[in-house]
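Inactive disease resistance protein RPS4: structure, please.
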Amino acid sequence: LRLPYSKIKRLWDAVKDLKELPQLKWVDLSYSGALIDLSALSKAFYLRRLNLEGCKILDKLPEEMNNMTGLVFLNLRGCVMLTSLPKSLKLKSLKTLILSGCSSFKNFELISKNLEFLHLDGTAITNLPETIQSFQKLVLLNLKNCITLVSLPDCLYKLKSLEELILSGCSKLDKFPEIKEKMENLQILLFDGTVLQCGDFSDQIVKPIRMNSLLMLRRLCLSGNDTIDSLQSSITQLNHLKWLDLRYCKNLKSLVKLPPNLQYLNAHACASLKTVESPLAFLMPTEQVSSSFIFTNCEKLEHSAKNEIICYAHNKSRLLSDALNRHNKGLAFENLVATCFPGSEVPVWFNHRDSGAVLEPQLLPSDNGCVGIALCAVVSFQDYKIQNNNFMVKCTCEFDNVETSSSIFNFHIGDLSVKIDKQRTIKSTHVFIGFTSWWQELGLKKGCVPAKASISFEVTDGTPEAAKCKVLKCGFSLVCESDNGSWDANAGAGHASSMSSESDDDSSKGNVDKASVVGESRLLRLLRRGWDFILFPFFSSSGYASTFNT
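Here you go.
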């Protein structure tokens, strides 16, 4: 039965004379703005799905709903007059309950031990009952923007099936309960906009959140938490952690060693961040996943920290390239590792560097083992405000080959791929660096050297605002097997200086160190058809299941 946007106040009286409604399995009365009475549905014993979303003046549910023993899905989203559910209501088959945006809803009680998905986001609850530990099948608990929530039950760790806990925007919640036992299934923990006054994620308190109780965690969001000045050193034990969001943690001063399989780190606007651990993370030789490390508006980031970030990105990209070359055949470009941070110079280890947005390198024939390439753009953001999710820094490469005509290849050096809630700004000039690889293509002739090469960069977002951004400098280099060890963060000061993101030697711009140009003919033999390269998903939370989107 589908009656969305109807003007019905009460369901028809004709059903009162029926003993049951045996065929009724699904009722949709969403956005029926006049609906006040559902009692006629009490005989729908076999009803499985009931959608009452947007019924704004519906202020109560009938106790006779207990007869709906087969109901598995109940959607009350946006029922703003609803204050509670009937105390006697027990829906033993219910698996999904949605109370999102029920802004008057204050009291939640146990209604089904079989609940798997519970959405209480945007409600007026102040706490959860201890009986919630009975929800042993609960997979998702969404408490986003529960601005009156002041505490969580101490038994929270007993929810052994819980995979996703969303506490974003719970502005009055200042303490997370102690985790006394392992939560072996918890994969997503979101605290963005929730200020944990006790500093649960720091080593400096008596009872921090025990990271070794959250070993399956894949996504952790702590953005907007001003009380965090450091992270627990035990965070490195989270071998499954892929996504760490630290945006706007304004008092975060340093980063400890990160988990080995981290794919996405966003430290945008961590205004106090100065140092990172060396090495930034342990490297896993067999991993084959791309990574993004974002440090935009981290204006206090020290020179040594920038070097360590670049060093880690290079070593990781080389490991990934090696793995791809070992296990795959055919030509396929991969976005491997990308990073950005405040800065004004192309690192000196880029073999080809120049001012402006165009680079025309001299590429020498060689057939040594190269496993990837590195690209760099220094971008000025003077007075620029991010307008939409189409921001990107693009790179176009054109090669005139001896045996073929001109070929053009497009790269995306950075983008912004999430919905923008407010205009964001980038305060200063930033360095964008990305590494990519290729898989060796069989059957190519040796000695195929291009007569000419041109690499150009541009900033675009689809609006005239992008004209305020300028590519000031750019760089191009090869990542070769012979680089093994030369980028090691634990190598001596000589190596660290070679990683420098700031160069005082202007004479080096545009010059080529011929002795270090290795394997370039191999690269150019492979660059024979178009491909896209996305340096990193700028401010992105993409790449995960839809339940990750917040």
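Notes: Residues 122-129+141-255 form a domain with the Leucine-rich repeat, LRR (right-handed beta-alpha superhelix) fold (CATH 3.80.10.10).
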